Structure formats: C-alpha cells, structure tokens
Amino acid sequence: MSIVLPPNVSERSFQKALDAFAGVVGKQWVLATDEDRHTYMDIYAAGDADRHVPSAAVGPQSPEEVQAIIRIANEHKVPLWPISRGKNLGYGAAAPCMSGTVVLDLGRMKRILEVNERFGYCLIEPGVGFFDLFNYLQANKIPLWMSVPANAWGSVVGNALERGYGYTPYGDNTSHICGMEVVLANGEMVRTGTGAMSNSPCWQLFKYGYGPAWDQLFVQSNFGVVTKMGLWLMPEPEATLGLAMQLQEPDDVGWAVDELAPLRLNGVLLQSPSIGNSLRIAASQSQRTQWYDGDGAMPDDVLRQVLQKFGLGWWNIDLWLYGYDDVNEAHARIIKNAFAKHSKQEFKVTKWHRGEPIANSGAGVPSTNALQIVNWRGGRGGHLGFSPVMPPTSEHVLKQFHSTKKRYEEIGVDYYGSFTLMERYTTNVNLMVYDQNDSAMTAKVRALFKVLVADAAKEGYSEYRTHLSYMDDVALTFDYNNHALLRLNETVKDALDPNGILAPGKQGIWPRTYRSEKT
Amino acid sequence: MEIFPETGCIARLAIVIALGASLAAFGVTRIVAQEKTSEASARKMAEGKALFQARCGYCHLAGGTGTLMLGRRLGKDKALLASRTDLSAEYIKKITRVGINSMPPHTRIEVPDSELDLIAAYLTRPESERGASEPKADSLPGSEPIRE
C-alpha cells in the first residue's frame, strides 16, 4: 500500500510534520506504517475505501498536545481528521474524507473528569467509550443512566458529536450536550457556555452562556477539535415498563406511526420507539444463504418463511416507559388502547423496578452484539446507512417505505429499514448489508445510495448523518437560495481555519485550500 | 441512530461486568515492580487475561458478537478465543492488525503493541496454565443460543 500524501504537501514537508508530531507525543504515538494506515481505513467500506486513505495517525494524550499538533499542522499545511475512537461504523469509521489527511486519534484521551450525581451529568474526554462510562457508573453505584446506541463500541463524545441516538428518554444524545472544551484551528482553546467564565459552577448545567451558543457549531462540523464534553445523564427512574409488539403486514407501519406520533409529542412516550423490519433481527441471528442464495433482493415469500421461523412480525416495535410505576401503567394502558383499534395482538410486557437487575430494565447497557448483522452476506461484512428525516405521518412514512423498498428491489439489495419516532419527526434508517469482497454487490450498494439521496431530496427529505463518500451529495440537497447555507459554512470555515487543516470535506464543508477536492 | 435489534440484555450485562472487573484488575497489575520469575510469569498471564477482557472482551467473551459469529462459522468448540489452543501468537497479532472476515483491524492506539504481546501470550498459554474450569462458549451465563 503506497502512501497517499495530502494535496500540495511534499514528502519532505510531510516527514517534517511527522517528526514534529513525534516531538510532542513521542515516536510511539505517530503511526505511519502501511499496516497503521490500513487500520485507519474505512473498515466497512462499500468498495470505495481507496477514496478515503489516511497518510498517518497521531495520538495525543492531552488537550495541550492537541494544541501543539494543530500548530504544527498549520506550519506544515498538513490536514488533520479528528476521531474520538474511530467507530463511526457505516459512516466511514476512522477514515478521513480526503485522502492524505492525517488522523488525529483522540483515543488516548479517556479521562472521566467528573460525574455529578446530584445534577445528572458527566464531563468526559473523547476517548471514553460507552463501556468505560457504564463501568464507572456501575462500579461507583451512581444511579445515573446512559443513552447507549445499538453498537456501543464507540465513544460517548464521538456519538454525540455525530448526532447518534440511544433508546432512553435521553436518546437524542446531541441535545444533551452541555458545555465543551474545544481547540480551534489556530490552536487556541475555548470553553463554550458558562465554561467561558473562569469560575462558573454552571458549565454542565446551563447550555447557553451569554450571546451565541456554540456547542452545536462543533457538532457534525470541522470548526474545532472537542477535547472535553459535558453530557447530561438520566436519573435512574423508579420503574420501567417495556412493550413489544409485532406488526404482521408491511402497511401496518402507517397506522402505528399515526397512533404513536401524538403520544410521543404529548409526552406519554418519552423515549423514541423504533419500528424496524424483521430483516434486522434475522440478520443478527442467521445468514442469508440459509434462506436464499439468489443475486437479487430476497423475495417477499422467502422473507415470510424467515418471519415464521423466528416468530417475527413484518415490523417489530419496542417501546419503553420510564418513571413512576403508576404513571407507567397508566401510559401503557393508553398505548394498548391505541393499538387495540387496529390489532388484536397483545403487547409483550417487561416490568422492572429499582433494585432489580438492570439487565431487565430499559436502561442503556452497552453491547457490540448488533454488529452480527454484518455477517448476513458472509465474507468480509460491512454496512452502510441511508437515513432521511421526515414528518411522522402515515402519508410520508408509507410513501417513503414503498419507494425505498422498490429501489432496493430494482437494484437487488435486501430491504432493511426502520422508522424511529422523535417528538416532531421520524428518522427512516435504511441499512445496506454486504460482503466487502464482492465488488458487484458493493457497486450495487453505491448505486442504490446515490438513487436514494436523489429520491429523498425530491421529497424534501435530508439525511440526519451520512457516510464520507456522500457528504457532498447530501450537502448539495440543502439548496435553498442557491445553497446559501453551504456558503455560510464555508465562510465560517475559512475564517476559523484559513489553512484548511481541520477535517477537509466533513459534512461537505471544504476549506478554500481544498475546495477543488469537492466531489 | 441505528436500527439494530436489541440483543440479549443479560448477555450484554455479563460482558460489561467482566470488562469492568478486568479493567480494575489491569489497574492493579500495572504497578507491579520486581518479582521472581514464576511470579512474574503468573503476573504477566494475569495482565494478559485482564487486557484480553478489556480490549477484546467487547466481542470475544461468552455471549459476545465475535463469539457468536465464530460459533456460526467454525462451530461452538472454536467460538471462545480464550479456550482455543489452535492459535499462534503471531497469527493472533496479525489478525488483530489486519482483521478477518467481519472482524475489523485494530489500531496501535486502541491496542498498543506492548498490550497485544501480553494478550497473545495469554491466549497461547500452555496447557499447564489452563484451568479445568475455564469457560466454554455455550456454558457460561450470558451465552445466547445460536439459533440455526
């Protein structure tokens, strides 16, 4: 594997930068062998890993080392791609958007600086993983619950910065960020919110501070490197009540959304339920060849056999209620009555009360078991997610579902989708699972992704998050006033980062220096 | 937001607890100073075990995703890495860095070389250092049934 240098950087300048990085972090933490570069590539790439090849990686252990690295990067015009733990799986993992970029791996910065039980928050560094924080809370018997994504291998900070989700009432992780420490592209360190005061006791309590609130400007952006984050944690409730239901027909998702959306809006449901098709369960428990070995999308009649074997519905819903026992029971009755209008099927009920084993509760317990799905097609598994956001109504959801499934079938990929209901929108996550060794299959997946972005844009739906290879495509769908938002982002980028050293191309935001690299 | 199934809460908790215990043990073992050779060897093995659980345990303890996938691909007797005797240290180290099938490669920041050496030494420990009561993939609490 030959080294790909950053654009317009000579081998000599690049080597000087690496030597200077080593002077800051020590030689051991500048990773620049072929094998190192391989470990930072997109581990789930759909046949396009060579579009996002890192030139090296550097691993600081402190915010001060991050500052020093950024100053060196400016001096040598070497771009950096910050990662927390590099587990942004399905979206590019640890790989940079622009080939030649040096990965700034913050995985060694893993201090849990504070957990405040009284006010329900933590202050942590980017390398802290979901398992790390969960263990800390358990070991210290702190009754605060985390919001944990389905694959919990990654970083708590990284997930919140990418607008990841968990399954508790605090599931919209980004909205629970409160206060950051950020190193800017000129090496200066700032703290947001009331952290901008040298003596505030409210840094993790009050989000806004005074004047513009900057936290969200560092989310899904390339305006700075987040070195500390305050994140609110949920006080352990008195009880949780789980309701699981299967929907037998594809169009049942329509009425389910119409019944659940008002309950999510009015607070009967504090958590965001996910309605997912059965393939996501089948893929975690079996391989495709057991059921079907054809080239095209798995036919509906074969899928019916899978459902029967595993006792699944076409769609499957998990709802969780959190709070006081009596209130949960009352809310469960409201939900059951709403569903009884459409289905005679009973919910499967799971009850938990404080003091009982947490495994039976609706708490976020970290796991990587969801990654079993990548084994669906065998070989070297991978997945890619396409996730447009739309209003939570049956009209939108059914139209989107049928249109997406048709595209999967036309191009020959197994349909794998879900709708997650937030207060005022639903996110339709569609996964494409493939064998990375099968180039014909990954070519189909890439074609499907492009078509889905275009289809969604016609309906006015944007993605909430996307893979490196499609960041420009999705950014261009924000077309109001001839892409005025993109111009604003570029103006801010050029002002904060004139040398364009921080994450060129992230979310379609290219600095002036590298704007010609835009795809 | 992802659309993965919620899988095996009890299995998940068993893994998390093991990881937590291993991290705590690792903290203790790191501050060891001079020791006699046999004690040093035992220490090294304990450190390797703790590191294996901390760095690889996300997927490779009983009930973990790697264990389940290996069970499907190679059979239950080869599912649990810590119980296998057919792997060489060099193979383990190489696979950690380059990945295999659905297992991704691991960087030298996530698992530094010095830690990987200890992990490989633990996984390839001689028979004399393996206890009779070592875990089996399908016998530990937390193992999920392989439904095939």
How is this structure best described in words?
The complex is a heterodimer of chains A (519) and B (148). By secondary structure, chain A is of the alpha+beta class. Chain A is 31% helix and 19% strand. Chain A has helices at residues 11-25, 34-39, 63-76, 130-139, 156-161, 252-265, 279-285, 300-310, 325-340, 394-411, 439-459, 471-476, 480-496, and strands spanning 30-31, 56-58, 80-83, 102-105, 112-116, 121-124, 144-145, 177-184, 189-191, 224-232, 234-235, 239-247, 274-277, 315-323, 348-353, 381-386, 388-390, 417-421, 426-435, 462-463. In chain A, the strands form 4 sheets. In chain A, strands 12, 13, 14, 15, 16, 17, 18, 19 and 20 form a 9-stranded antiparallel beta sheet that branches. The longest helix of chain A is centred in the last third of the chain and has 21 residues, at 439-459. Chain A starts with 10 loop residues before the first helix and ends in a 23-residue tail after the last helix. The mean pLDDT of chain A is 96. Chain B is an all-alpha fold. Chain B contains 5 helices and no strands. The chains are: A alpha+beta (519), B mainly alpha (148). Chains A and B meet through α2, α4, α7, β18 and β19 of A and α1 and α3 of B.
Topology:
The complex is a heterodimer of chains A (519) and B (148).
Chain A: H1 11-25, E1 30-31, H2 34-39, E2 56-58, H3 63-76, E3 80-83, E4 102-105, E5 112-116, E6 121-124, H4 130-139, E7 144-145, H5 156-161, E8 177-184, E9 189-191, E10 224-232, E11 234-235, E12 239-247, H6 252-265, E13 274-277, H7 279-285, H8 300-310, E14 315-323, H9 325-340, E15 348-353, E16 381-386, E17 388-390, H10 394-411, E18 417-421, E19 426-435, H11 439-459, E20 462-463, H12 471-476, H13 480-496
Chain B: H1 9-29, H2 37-60, H3 65-74, H4 89-98, H5 113-123
Helix pairs in contact in B: 1-2, 2-5, 4-5
